[in-house]
UniProtKB/TrEMBL annotation:
NCBIfam families: hutH (TIGR01225), PRK09367.1 (NF006871). InterPro entries: Aromatic_Lyase, Fumarase/histidase_N, HutH, L-Aspartase-like, MoCF_Sase_C, Phe/His_NH3-lyase_AS. Residues 453-500 form the MOSC domain. The keyword Nucleotide-binding does not apply. It is an enzyme of class 4 (lyase). Contains an active site 4-methylidene-imidazol-5-one (MIO), which is formed autocatalytically by cyclization and dehydration of residues Ala-Ser-Gly. Pfam families: Lyase_aromatic (PF00221). The keyword Nucleus does not apply. One of its GO terms (molecular function) is histidine ammonia-lyase activity. This is Histidine ammonia-lyase. It catalyses: L-histidine = trans-urocanate + NH4(+). Its EC number is 4.3.1.3. Keywords: Cytoplasm, Histidine metabolism, Lyase.
Length: 500
């Protein structure tokens, strides 16, 4: 299926679908505005006035006037000179989303590009040809210049597409490289689409892992025979936070009709559970709140125009501003990083609680014969290591800045770095939740023949198909890999009826 991109009206679910693999093309209704914008650039050139990005140099060289005969060379030069990224290639899914965001931006008719440029991007997406783009080199201001320049370079037959020479890849697909017109090179490489696509990718992964953590948290509560009183809706209504209210309801739903829970409702000597159980609605509710705020920011960014200068066809003006500055994306990425960090932090505390017999009431390290067997001793250490790694990565990127372009670009957002770290953080979190999944189901096994709720029993059954109960020490790594495969497939997330 090919998704139709309507500029200014692209929803969260649509963006997620593109990230997950759907192709995208621009709404045909956008093309008259694109044509009008390109025509306005031609009229501006005819006037002969110096206009940044059209007949001048770039950045600190904006005062250098370029002759009309050199305008095509100017646009080609900016693409080639700015394609100076380094590092590992971007994931294909993020490249696909980035190109779709660039299409959506051009669809507003404020960038001055030709319809031929738009159609080539559409064709590349339709044929699933993904430019090979180094992931490092943007500071998140004046646009994500280096990575977007690498994308633009493939449009003119330079660089690589899926690891082969771009000109060869285009030719095999029956496509011809572009000859860029006035302003087109600058329009292609200016904008926040690299930072925004990476931040959205991190958000989509965080959404799934958030829901997964509700399930593993509920399983841990069952394993420890924790109280469900802290999830009473009256408590959370008094606090007023929507996320907290929603999380408490989701946890109640997940644990409803549990025989394990019913077995200890009377005569339980514990008055209060540890915070990692009792405060799940408060912590995860706060996480949900900032994820929702980040989603709102990033959907707005995905629907806007962030290159420079902007063309206003109704008045034949090219206005220079600062929409390329990715500060909103940087803040959103920082919030997502905090969310990923905190989901893992409280999950690791639940793992630590489960392996401690003084807190859980379960055998030490969740093994029937502790001493002879170490059980879950070192998986908890692995989870702690991953959580600490994420803590180090969660330092806000947006508080950093470094001047570039001879101090012309003297305050930058660092959105690119802030967004790019999110996928590795999500990968760490997935492993932490996989370990909690294993530990919580192991804990529930000790309560046999009692069972948990229908929803949580689905989660237990899915794991036990792949991983048997740990009755003696064995090679643990394959168990974590198997549990992580279920986490990454969204098996647990599908059981939590809560979304952004």
């Amino acid at each position: 299926m090919t998704i139709t991109l309507t500029p200014g009206a692209i929803g969260f679910e649509t963006l997620r679908a593109i990230y997950r693999g759907e192709a995208a093309a621009l709404d045909p209704a956008a093309f008259p505005a694109i044509e009008a914008s390109a025509a306005a650039v031609a009229r501006i050139l005819d006037r002969g006035d110096p206009v940044y990005g059209i007949n001048t140099g770039f950045g600190k060289l904006a005062s250098v006037r370029i002759d009309d005969a050199d305008l095509a060379t100017l646009q080609r030069n900016i693409v080639l000179s700015h394609a100076a990224g380094v590092g590992d290639p971007m994931p294909r899914a993020v490249v696909r989303l980035m190109m779709a965001l660039k299409l959506a931006s051009f669809g507003h008719g404020a960038s001055g590009v030709s319809t031929a440029t738009v159609h080539l991007i559409e064709a590349v997406l339709a044929k699933d040809l993904m430019p090979t783009i180094p992931s490092q080199g943007s500071v998140g201001a004046s646009g994500d210049l280096a990575p977007l320049a690498h994308m633009a370079a493939t449009m003119i037959g330079v660089g690589e597409i899926d690891g082969i020479p771009a000109a060869e890849a285009l030719a095999k697909a029956g496509l011809a490289p572009l000859t860029l017109g006035a302003k087109e090179g600058l329009a292609l490489l200016n904008g926040t689409q690299f930072s925004c696509s990476y931040a959205l990718a991190g958000l989509f992964e965080a959404e799934s892992l958030f829901r997964t953590a509700l399930v593993t948290g509920a399983l841990s509560t069952e394993a420890a025979k924790g109280s469900d009183t802290p999830f009473d809706p009256r408590i959370h209504t008094l606090r007023r936070h929507r996320g907290q209210i929603d999380v408490a309801e989701a946890l109640r739903t997940l644990m409803r009709a549990s025989a394990i829970r019913a077995s200890h409702l009377e005569g339980d000597a514990r008055v209060q559970d540890p915070y990692c159980l009792r405060c799940q609605p408060q912590v995860m509710g706060a996480v949900l709140g900032i994820l929702r705020q980040a989603a709102e920011t990033l959907v707005d960014e995905a629907n806007g125009v962030s290159d420079n200068p902007l063309i206003f066809a109704d008045t034949d003006e090219a206005l220079s501003g600062g929409n390329f500055h990715a500060e909103p994306v940087a803040f959103a990425a920082d919030m997502i990083a905090l969310a990923l960090c905190e989901i893992g932090s409280i999950a690791e505390r639940r793992i630590a609680m489960l392996v401690d017999p003084a807190l859980s009431g379960l055998p030490a390290f969740l093994t029937p014969k502790p001493g002879l067997n170490s059980g879950f001793m070192i998986p908890q250490v692995t989870a702690a290591a991953l959580v600490s790694e994420n803590k180090q990565r969660a330092y806000p990127a947006s508080v950093d800045s470094i001047p570039t372009s001879a101090n012309q670009e003297d305050h930058v957002s660092m959105a690119a770095h802030g967004a790019r770290r999110l996928l590795p953080m999500a990968e760490n979190l997935a492993s932490v939740l996989a370990i909690e999944y294993l530990a919580a189901v192991q804990g529930c096994d000790f309560h046999a023949p009692l069972t948990s709720s229908p929803a949580l029993e689905q989660a237990r059954a899915a794991l036990r198909v792949k991983v048997p109960t740990l009755d003696h020490d064995r090679h643990f790594h394959p168990d974590i890999v198997a549990a992580a495969s279920l986490v990454n497939a969204g098996t647990l997330a599908a059981l939590a009826e809560l979304s952004l």
